[in-house]
Amino acid sequence: MSRVLTENRELCEIKCEPYRKMLSEAFLREKQVLASIERDPTGSAYKRLNLCDEMIGCATYYITINNLTVELVNTKDNDALNDARKMIYKALIYLEEIVTGTVDALQTDLEEKLASIGAAPLDKKFYLIRKLGLAISLLIDAFGDNTKWKWSFVEVQGRFATVAKNLLDLKQAAKDYFDPNSPDYDNSVLYIRLIRKLNEQSAQAYRDRYELSTHRIDDMRLAIQYLSASRRIAIALGETEDAEEIKKKAGVWRQKVEADQKAGRAN
């Protein structure tokens, strides 16, 4: 058994080596790009889009290393998973540096930031967001249900929902959403459906974290902000009834947290 385990570990190292090499190459490219931004900030937003993509790739390499370790050695590589988690955070940060991490950002406040990546096609941005979402899902699955990071993933998914929404020119997308002749029709419909789902999920996840774990008012405030972001999307689409329902729901949640405060159940 010991001999088999040793052989498996050696095989695992051999199979993981190409991914470690790709990680080293990616980190070198990241360093070079950051140095170029430092020298000349022109086009830095586009460079950060590329860096986000690079970090998504790095996260998947680390996840693959963990998967190989599980397959061949029958144990998780927690170091690789934690490094993957860090790469996801870096990917999120690069996007936040472009379009901010403000949950309920006004479209007018995002116009100048979106203009900095105005030449980036919608399909490319949508593809990047889907890649990031997949990497986050793979990471959560790899950690499993009993991970100590369970509640911290609420923040990861919330920040993802925010940058996904902020990266979209909602004003233009809402027009394309109702225009089947637009070349961006399909991507606009799918993108808007995605960000609505993500914001609704984050609102509920932050409320769950408040109820089941932290009892922190900040979590409920964030839950309500995600509801507000969902309402903003509904308004952009002209869905007044849906917007009103979300407003009422947010009001109920505010009453809930106020009642908890009075009863001493909230921090």
Folded structure, characterized:
By secondary structure, the chain is mainly alpha-helical. It folds into 2 domains: 1-144, no CATH class; 168-267. Helix content is 82%, strand content 0%. The chain contains 10 helices and no strands. The chain has helices at 2-39, 44-73, 78-99, 107-115, 122-143, 152-166, 170-177, 185-214, 217-236, 240-263. Helix 3 (78-99) runs parallel beside helix 6, helix 6 runs antiparallel to helix 8 (185-214) and helix 8 (185-214) packs antiparallel against helix 9 (217-236). The longest helix has 38 residues, at 2-39. It starts with a helix and ends with a helix.
Quickly describe the structure.
With 267 residues, the protein is mostly helical.
Task: Say how many strands there are.
Answer: 0
Distance between the termini: 52 Å
Using the CA coordinates, give the radius of gyration. Answer: 21 Å
Strand composition percent? under 5%
SSE order: HHHHHHHHHH
- Total individual domains: 2
Quote the average pLDDT. 94
Shape: globular
Task: Please give a handful of descriptors for the protein shown.
267 residues; globular
